[in-house]
Amino acid sequence: MSGLLLKNIRPFGGAATNILIRDGRIASIGSGEPENVKVEDGNGAIAIPGFVEAHAHLDKSLWGMGWHAHQAGPTLEDKISTERRLRRELDIDPRRQSARQVALAASHGTTAIRSHVDVDTDQKLWCFEGVAETRQHFRDVVDMEIVAFPQSGMMIRPGTLELMDAALAAGADVVGGLDPCGIDRDPKGQLDAVFGLAEKHGKPIDIHLHEPDALGAFSLELIIERTRALGMRGKVTVSHAFCLGMTDRLRVNALVEQLAREDIAIATTAPAGWPAPAADELRRAGVRLCAGSDGIRDTWGPYGNLDMLERALFIGLRNNFRNDSDVEYALHVCTQGGADVLKLESYGLHEGAHADLVLIDAETIPEAVAARPKRKLVLKRGQPIARDGQALITVE
Ligand SMILES: [Zn+2]
Question: Would the pLDDT of 88 be above 90?
Answer without folding.
Answer: no
